[in-house]
Amino acid sequence: MTNHSFFFYGFVLFGVILARYFLIAGGAYLLFYSVLGKSHSIRSLRLKPPMAGSIQRDVELSVLSAVVFAVCAALIISKYGLGVTLFYTDLHKYGLWYLGVSFVAVLILQDTYFYFIHRMFHHPLFFRWMHHGHHRSGEPTPWSSFAFDLPEAIIQALFFVGVIFLVPLHLITLVTVLMTMTVWAVLTHLGFEIFPSSSPRHWLGRWFIGPMHHLIHHRKYTVHYGLYFTFWDNLLGTQHPNYEDEFHL
Ligand SMILES: [Zn+2]
Ligand SMILES: [Zn+2]
Question: Which ligand sits nearest to residue 143's alpha carbon?
Answer without folding.
Answer: 1
